[in-house]
Design a protein that fits this description.
2-enoyl-CoA Hydratase, Chain A, domain 1; alpha/beta; eight-stranded mixed sheet
Length: 321
């Protein structure tokens, strides 16, 4: 579904102006017998050309802004569209429920899967409920519980990654945030069922790796995947967060950089202007890519699947694709 964009990024201003004029002219259609059809068509073509030109030359920092776009589809959007009979499962059986990580069982194109994802929320109330996708320890312990359940019953795992990072609060640290992330990452490595992860927005630090230590890592064209945010890196390296654009370039956080380094396996092409401009299309393409990735492991044994995952991570940085 192509949706009208309500929020434009700073570098999209030329596109925003043209699309605003198109909307204004469309509202005049039928008023006073004035025909503006040709002018609307001309402006639409100019807007589309400006959009193509803008998005064909994005810098790493601009891609970061696109990955964080508030209208970008989130984990629950993918789950609701791709997973039939989804049954959410809550709680870590130790402390409580963490809505920053959603998970449950469902059918993906006739195949049972366990889906786990970071959910940021789509409005103010949702963002508060889901803590902007930044999980507490109980979120990662819930992920471990669900992955172990999937392993027990031979069900593949699909993870949808979209987080700025694990929640850095004092209470989270007191409850063992680092240990929870480490155990979740270790759990991913031990499973004998295939894991396919998709970086749908931000893949931030250990908060992302904890559910993205997978056999296949797919990444949307304008998503980012990094050990720290560009702002955080700039603050540490230069003690100046204003150097975030320089940091984003140096860190190699884009899908185009990461596939060369072997960190990810596949880039899913987004609609021109970003995933938020045609949600149905990007969700369908993501579903097709997930299905293709899962099919690669149908003939493999559990031990082979686990060995494949180990070898995949040992190769990162050792060979340039």
């Amino acid at each position: 579904m192509k949706v009208p964009v309500r929020f434009y990024l700073d570098f999209e201003k030329p596109v925003a102006e043209l699309e605003a004029k198109v909307s204004e002219l469309k509202s005049m259609v039928g008023e006073g017998g004035v025909s503006v059809t040709d002018e609307i068509k001309t402006l639409q073509q100019k807007a589309e050309s400006a959009l193509v030109e803008t998005y064909s030359n994005l810098t790493p920092w601009q891609k970061t802004l696109v990955a964080r776009h508030p209208e970008r589809p989130h984990a629950l959007d993918y789950i609701n569209a791709l997973i039939e009979d989804f049954t959410p499962l809550a709680g870590d059986r130790y402390f409580g429920e963490d809505a920053a990580i959603v998970g449950g069982l469902g059918l993906f194109r006739g195949r049972s899967v366990m889906v786990i994802g970071n959910e940021k929320g789509s409005d103010t109330q949702g963002r508060i409920k889901h803590n902007f996708g930044m999980a507490n320890p109980e979120g990662y312990r819930k992920a471990v519980r669900l992955m172990e359940m999937a392993d027990r019953f031979g069900i593949p795992v699909v993870s949808l990654v979209d987080t700025a990072g694990a929640y850095p609060g004092v209470a989270a640290e007191e409850r063992g945030q680092a240990e929870a992330i480490a155990r979740s990452t270790d759990c991913c490595l031990q499973l004998k069922v295939p894991i396919v992860s998709v970086i749908i927005g931000e893949g931030g630090s250990g908060g992302a790796v904890a559910i993205a230590t997978a056999n296949k890592i797919l990444m949307l064209e304008h998503a980012i995947y990094s050990v720290i945010s560009p702002e955080g890196a700039a603050s540490i390296i230069w003690r100046d967060s204003n150097k975030k654009e320089e940091a984003a370039t140096a860190m190699k956080i884009t899908a185009q950089d990461l596939i060369v380094l072997g960190v990810i396996d596949t880039i899913i092409q987004e609609p021109v202007g970003g995933a938020h401009r045609d949600r149905d299309r990007i969700i369908r393409l993501t579903g097709d890519t997930i299905a293709k990735a899962l099919a690669e492991y149908d003939s493999m044994t559990g031990d082979q699947i686990r060995r494949h995952r180990h070898e995949r991570f040992l190769k990162i940085g050792r060979q340039i694709q």
